[in-house]
Write a structure and sequence with these properties.
With about 170 residues, the protein is mainly β. It is built from 2 helices and 8 strands. This is Outer membrane protein beta-barrel domain-containing protein.
Length: about 170
């Protein structure tokens, strides 16, 4: 029994020691791959890359493509209706809220092909270099008031979820 508890203690210490810092500050580099969920059972893929500029600020790029889109009035959306690119600015507030070192809360703004919006996200690193993320994105101002059938795609509230990768990680 002592050997079991000693092994459990060593395992726990190893996990605690190997956790990635969720945001390092300047030169931090994170990539995220996940799913993009929108209204009417619309689903797609999303990839983001964020680069740390300072203690709490990062900039990045997001690319999304919706692949599960319902036809509207018998019409299928074109590539440009499904595709979106956004430039992002994030404020890393995990340390401000005294979250564990492997967690980060980040609100931000994004400037996309279809709108100016905001997002609230959370990253949680499971071990050295890989973790989970979730993000809610919302529209602040649409660029067009078009009533085109596919205008709401990538132009509405969305929930993103998936894996996050610490690309700045240096092995122990």
């Amino acid at each position: 029994m002592k050997i079991f508890f000693a092994g459990l203690l060593l395992f726990t210490l190893n996990i605690a020691n190997s956790q990635t810092t969720a945001y390092l500050g300047r030169t931090d580099l994170k990539a995220q791959l996940g799913f993009d969920f929108q209204r009417n059972n619309t689903m797609g893929a999303v990839a983001t890359m964020d680069y740390g500029l300072g203690k709490n600020i990062s900039v990045g790029l997001q690319v999304a493509y919706l692949y599960n889109v319902k036809d509207i009035d018998g019409l299928e959306p074109d590539f440009q209706d499904r595709f979106d690119v956004k430039a992002r600015v994030n404020a890393s507030l995990g340390k401000v809220f005294r979250m564990p070192i492997n967690m980060d809360f980040y609100p931000g703004l994004d400037f996309g092909l279809r709108n100016f919006g905001g997002h609230l996200g959370l990253r949680y690193y499971l071990n050295n270099g890989i973790g989970l993320f979730t993000e809610g994105q919302f529209v602040i101002q649409k660029y067009t008031s078009s009533t085109e059938k596919f205008n709401p795609l990538n132009n509405q509230f969305a929930i993103l979820a998936g894996l996050t990768f610490d690309l700045h990680h240096e092995p122990n």
